[in-house]
Task: inverse folding
């Protein structure tokens, strides 16, 4: 399993959608509570993971996200509420290219639109979600702000099939589905009885979402039937920090948790949907990503300053 | 807003630590395996894989009775043509069919049922596959689809063929034998004896549908059908029929291939229709021009569970959602759709606004336009490719024919059409309606490819029997909807 060590606690890991061997890791000192941040870009090679470039920031970085339009553009979400745009091919003095600062509290999630590739969303602990455009020469301010949640919005994610639709998961225990064409959320899902830290769209069924919560469970929902979850995945012993559907298999899900494990689930297998559990982290596992380009490849990042890349078959 | 560093740190710490408070385990809500035996047999839990889906819907051309190209074609030839077409399109092994249900109205009951069985042999369907007919008058083709869907849901079989046929050239509407004298004691029974055109006049009179409204409706039907035919929109649903015609004068027999509907009159005008005489009532409004044509034709629809469709790699054309048949006053039987559509929608949990396309049979312009207005349906959603006034109404086939036209239209519209309705009025005072949902697959399964080597991506239990273990080795077919998901993957593969 190729591994990399980061100087600070790793918070988020993302495979590049363009380059199968490139991976971005957002990190923060002191678990993101106080101190600086550092954004890494690693290159995976037969010799292991080599650091391509890194950027220091004044505050911790909680999430990062590759642009879907340009292979060298990377976004970071910071504890000071700002979103920064980096060009990994540009010289260090040119970076960051831009900064979007509007969130009044920690910005913790970024999502790039797969259809209108200049658009991205950010969500923050100020209970709001903001829509931005990365177009060169575009406005420095957000295109739109989505209010509605009453507590931190931990995760925001565009629907892979519908360029106008996205979901948000919040500590107010709801998951909301929004549509750019509508003024408010099109669905407010009372997903759990406790904070919902993460949610993701199924890549093969545009009506299915998975939600992960502080209550240690993952629930799979059909947005057309929000009254009742389709299935509950139990197995984590602490809060579920991230849940992601596989881009290559309709019923596979990966999750990472404060119980330090990363788990693989298959929703089609009942009654025991848990397929695999990996415990390579020795602290909270908080970052997780599937590779779009290499089928079955996973990456996780933890507060133990480790980034691990492995294949789901291992 | 901005807090001092230590206050901010404290805030972050408190938000994070709230996520770690011990909570009671989330309730276990998923079903447990029953330890009392074979859990698969015990727990019948409907999943999306159990949905009844339509994988093929095809029809013959519709031609005028007694004059058109199919006038000398019997029910056996019509049915076997559509049976074979559906099987050829899906490459389905005919032995997999659990039952064949054929809607048929006017053919003599036992003989028609036998003709349907003979047709199945003509189409290469083995003797193990049973056949039956169903007759709910004008809705028979739709009733056949509903019966197959219900049987699939009941678990009688997983693949069923529904069809409809009518040969009005050789078996016209007729009443044989005497008339029970006690009918006169029951007004509703009397209503059952009224000629269909008289019920149309009753509807026009009772609900104030003027002659002009009816003629304009009829012209729109012809214009829409003509535009659709010219644009080649019927190409996907029509199966040419190889048959013969006997010349009306010389009696010479000629082999022909009939491949187009012949009832459409592109150049019809309101003025031309206004000149026609009302035939069912003096000073009436129903004429040959604003009534459905008498027609020969057949259609077939192949239904199966979604699990079967995935197993066979068949794209889903539509999903069967609901069906309702309701009774109405026989004397105004044309109001049938106005009663049946709300019932079918209620079953599906939908409203008229949720429906993107309607196929409402135009038995008469009077009842069709009344029903549309009564339900407040946007007329632009109804019969976008014309209706029975232009295309014809082969009684037993109509329900299946409308379903084929509807599903192909919805497929052409892609994401713009999610739900569709087929409905018709029924002689003797009923209405029937069914709700279909788009299959969601606007492209045929073209990106699917088999992977070689041992399947390590999916658990054994996740892959359905039949997908794993193709030709003895474990292969799996992984469909990739790459265009929507990630273009980079498409470029790579």
Result:
């Amino acid at each position: 399993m190729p591994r990399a060590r980061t100087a600070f606690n790793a918070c988020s890991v993302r495979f590049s959608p363009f380059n199968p061997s490139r991976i971005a890791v957002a990190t923060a000192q002191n678990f993101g509570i106080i101190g600086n941040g550092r954004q890494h870009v690693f290159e995976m090679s037969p010799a292991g993971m080599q650091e391509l470039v890194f950027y220091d920031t004044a505050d911790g970085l909680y999430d990062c996200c590759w642009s879907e339009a340009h292979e060298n553009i990377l976004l970071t979400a910071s504890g000071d509420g700002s979103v920064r745009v980096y060009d990994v091919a540009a010289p260090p003095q040119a970076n960051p290219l831009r900064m979007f600062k509007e969130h009044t509290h920690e910005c913790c999630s970024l999502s790039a639109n797969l259809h209108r590739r200049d658009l991205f969303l950010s969500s923050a602990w100020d209970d709001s979600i903001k829509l931005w455009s990365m177009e060169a020469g575009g406005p420095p301010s957000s295109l739109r702000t989505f209010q509605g949640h009453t507590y931190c919005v931990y995760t925001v994610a565009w629907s892979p099939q519908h360029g106008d639709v996205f979901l948000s998961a919040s500590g107010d225990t709801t998951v909301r589905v929004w549509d750019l064409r509508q003024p408010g959320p099109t669905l407010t899902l009372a997903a759990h009885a406790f904070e919902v830290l993460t949610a993701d769209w199924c890549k093969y069924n545009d009506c299915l979402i998975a939600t992960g919560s502080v209550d240690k469970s993952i629930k799979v929902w059909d947005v057309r039937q929000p009254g009742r979850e389709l299935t509950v995945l139990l197995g984590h012993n602490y809060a579920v920090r991230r849940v992601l559907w596989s881009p290559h298999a309709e019923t596979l899900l990966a999750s990472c948790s404060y119980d330090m494990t990363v788990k693989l689930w298959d929703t089609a297998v009942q009654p025991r949907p848990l397929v695999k559990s990996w415990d390579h982290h020795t602290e909270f596992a908080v970052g997780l990503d599937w590779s779009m380009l290499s089928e079955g490849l996973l990456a996780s990042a933890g507060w133990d300053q480790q980034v691990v890349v492995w294949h789901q078959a291992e | 807003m901005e807090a001092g560093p230590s206050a901010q740190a404290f805030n972050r710490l408190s938000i994070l630590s709230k996520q770690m408070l011990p909570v009671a385990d989330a309730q276990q809500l998923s079903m447990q395996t029953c330890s009392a035996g074979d859990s698969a047999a015990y727990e019948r839990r409907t999943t999306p894989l159990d949905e009844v889906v339509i994988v093929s819907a095809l029809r013959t051309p519709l031609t005028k009775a007694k004059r058109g190209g199919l006038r000398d074609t019997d029910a056996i030839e019509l049915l076997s043509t559509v049976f074979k077409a559906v099987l050829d399109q899906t490459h389905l092994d005919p032995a997999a069919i659990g039952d064949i249900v054929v809607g048929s109205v006017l053919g003599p009951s036992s003989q028609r049922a036998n003709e349907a069985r003979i047709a199945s042999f003509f189409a290469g369907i083995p003797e193990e596959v049973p056949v039956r007919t169903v007759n709910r008058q004008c809705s028979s083709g739709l009733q056949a689809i509903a019966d197959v869907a219900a049987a699939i849901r009941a678990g009688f079989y997983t693949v069923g063929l529904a069809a409809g046929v009518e040969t009005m050239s050789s078996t016209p509407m007729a009443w044989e034998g005497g008339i029970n004298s006690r009918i006169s004691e029951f007004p509703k029974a009397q209503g059952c004896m009224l000629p269909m055109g008289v019920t149309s006049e009753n509807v026009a009179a009772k609900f104030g549908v003027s002659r002009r409204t009816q003629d304009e409706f009829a012209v729109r039907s012809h214009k829409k059908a003509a535009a659709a035919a010219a644009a080649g929109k019927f190409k996907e649903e029509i199966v040419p029929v190889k048959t013969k015609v006997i010349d009306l004068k010389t009696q010479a027999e000629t082999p022909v291939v009939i491949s187009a509907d012949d009832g459409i009159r592109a150049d019809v005008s309101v003025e031309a229709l206004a000149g026609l005489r009302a035939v069912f009532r003096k000073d009436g409004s129903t004429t040959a021009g604003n009534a459905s044509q008498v027609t020969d034709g057949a259609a077939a629809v192949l239904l199966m569970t979604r699990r079967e469709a995935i197993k066979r790699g068949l794209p889903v054309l539509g999903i069967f959602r609901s069906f309702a048949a309701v009774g109405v006053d026989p004397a105004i039987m044309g109001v049938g759709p106005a009663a049946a559509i709300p019932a079918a929608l209620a079953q599906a949990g939908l409203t008229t606004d949720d429906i993107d396309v309607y196929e409402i049979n135009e038995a008469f312009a009077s009842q069709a336009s009344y029903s549309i207005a009564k339900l407040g349906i946007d007329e632009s959603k109804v019969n976008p490719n014309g209706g029975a006034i232009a295309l014809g109404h082969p009684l037993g086939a109509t329900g299946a024919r409308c379903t084929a036209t509807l599903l192909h239209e919805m497929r052409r519209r892609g994401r713009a059409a999610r739900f569709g309705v087929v409905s018709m009025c029924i002689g003797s005072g009923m209405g029937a309606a069914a709700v279909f949902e788009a299959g969601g697959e606007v492209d045929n399964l073209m990106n699917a490819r088999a992977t070689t080597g041992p399947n390590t991506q999916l658990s054994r239990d996740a892959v359905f029997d039949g997908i794993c273990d193709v030709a003895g080795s474990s292969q799996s077919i992984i469909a990739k909807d790459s265009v929507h998901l990630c273009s980079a993957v498409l470029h790579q593969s």
Remarks:
- The mean pLDDT of chain A is 95.
- Chain A touches chain B through 51 residues (CB under 8 Å).
- Chain A has two domains: 1-125+280-314, 148-272.
